[in-house]
Amino acid sequence: MKIKKKLKKAFILLFVCSAFSAVSQEAMDSVFSELNLAFTRKSAEEVSSVLHKYSSSPQYHDYEAYALKKTRQLIIENDLEFARQTSLAVIDNNLENFDAVELYSYIDRAILNEQAAKQAEENRLRLEAERLAAINEKTKAKIEKSNAYQTLSTQSGSQVYVKESNQTFSSVDWRMQLCMADLLFQSVPDKDYSSLKYGLGAGADIFYNVDSFILAADIFADFQMLNLNGGQQEFFMSARFVPMIAFPEFSRNLYFRMGFASYGVATEFSQISGSTESFMTPVFGIGVENVALGSTEINGHFDYYLGHFAYDMKFSFEAGAGITLPVAVNEHTKIGFRIGASDIMFLKESGMENRLKGIIGIGVGNVVK
Question: Which of 20, 263, 300, 338 is in Cβ range 3.0-4.6 Å of 321 for a Cys bridge?
Answer without folding.
Answer: 300
